[in-house]
Amino acid sequence: MLRLLSLIEPLNPSTYHRVFSHRRWHAGRFAKVIATFVIDRFYPDGIVRVVGDETVDGHRGKKVYGKARHRDAVQSTHSHTVYRYGHKWVVLAVLIQLPGVGRPMALPLLIALYRDQKTNAAEGRRHKTQAQLMCGLLALLMRWFPQRKFAFAGDNVSGTHQMCRFAYRHRRQLSPVRKFIADVNLYRPPPRRKLGINGRPRIKGASLPKPCEIVGSRRGGR
Question: How far from chain centre, in Å, is Cα 53?
Answer without folding.
Answer: 5
